[in-house]
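Throughout our pipeline, every protein is held as a single compact record rather than as scattered files. The record that follows is passed on verbatim for readers who wish to inspect the format.
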Amino acid sequence: MKFSSGNSLLRAACLLAVALLPTVTASARPNILLIYTDDHSYRTIGCYPQAYPWVETPNIDALATNGVRFEYAYIGTWCMPSRATLLTGHHQYGVRSMRMEGQYPGSTYDPQQCPFWPAVFREHGYLTCQIGKWHTGTDTGANRDWDHQIVWNRPRYPANSGKYFYDQLIETNGGPARLTRGYSTDNYTNWAEDFIRGEHRRDEDRPWYLWVCYGAVHGPFTPAERHRETYPNISVPVPQDIYPPRPGKPAYMQKIDGWVPDADGNPAMNGGFGGLTVEDTKSVYGNTLNGWVRQYHQGVKALDESVGRLVSALKESGQYDNTLIVFTSDQGFAWGQHGFHTKLAPYDANIRSPLIVSMPSQLPTGKVVQHPVAGVDLVPTFFHFAGIDLPWKMHGHDLTPLLKNPESDWPHPALTAFTARMYGDDTIQVPDDSALNNITGIPWYFMLRQGQYKYIRNLVEGETEELYDLTADPDELTNLAQQAEHRQRLLSLRAATVDELRRTDAGIVEHLPAVAGE
């Protein structure tokens, strides 16, 4: 049954009809479990070919074996706008009224101007629940967007905002925060398991949407104590462009110096992790690239265990066959590639996320989608599976055709937008203020993936564009933008980017800084 979000009378009639349906019809609408990790590169997961050969993630790999894996997923660029996109279906420039305010990471929004779609699911009979990290305004939407919520409200408590793994202030359903001990990944999984098994759900036949939002593997990259002996004696290849210069890349890329040779000639982190308000990021195994990559991957182990526990809870409670499971991350994280130890930048090493969708009762298994997709595509997909009409114009496209047939044609390019700490109407023009037009030196940009090619438009007057062939050059080392034989492709992708901006009502499209040669 399709649901419409038309006038209030029709809406009331629809809701009454849902209430009167037999139980079997209500329960036939699928549950949706979104497992969402933080700063989590696709390279850390064994089922991705780019993973190091020593990586072990059996539970996440099993999701891919029993589902559809997306090779190229671009969910977001950094924590807050990635989540805002997930809650609205809009790119960062379309998230109205969201602003960074107060002590970082404080932020606010007006729910009348910036509604979050889980409220629409509630209106149409879904029970909505969010557990874990909350990072999108001090207002969590408790009792408005969410029937049940247990969250670490990071924007509300700046003094606690660095406590990614221990001693978090946890709010339950908008109530007062309580200091909570234990390893956060395990805590979130415990609470999510309880929800899946029926706690906090008065009507067992009501379909549910559960967003489990982990803080791992964000800095300070703290693995659980039980995993600190894993991955001994690893050897991490040094990325080719870990040190500058980086020929053909924009001016800012020549200044990226996140790594320097130590006394033995091995790459060592330069200056420490740059995350704001994160508690001291201490290296467990030394400041070398090998040590940091080991520590980061150890943090993934608890996430993998959590995936196994949540899937087991679904199976043991008889809900597995009727649950759409989506596993992804807000963005990736670079370790040495292009000189970075961060996300943000438009390169796959920095922002490409894992994306796995599993529902063996309805979808093929063991398949891989090669078409690039974006974070804005997830929300229309959820609405399709729930049988609810979209309540407003979304920026993305329903992925169901690719989920049903991973080898089908897909005409839609995948756009990624980075406007630093600015949202909505504040992004109509690039600000002159250097505190607003970049983060850690990375300027505003738009990135478009279409087929095997990536186009990047850095929003700096007169700056070079970037064009990469990811089939021939997966490490994005050779910028083709200034090569005459690629001129027509460059112009085509430049135009396609502008078309996407117009389609998604980006006000900045009329104020784009000129590119080199214009």
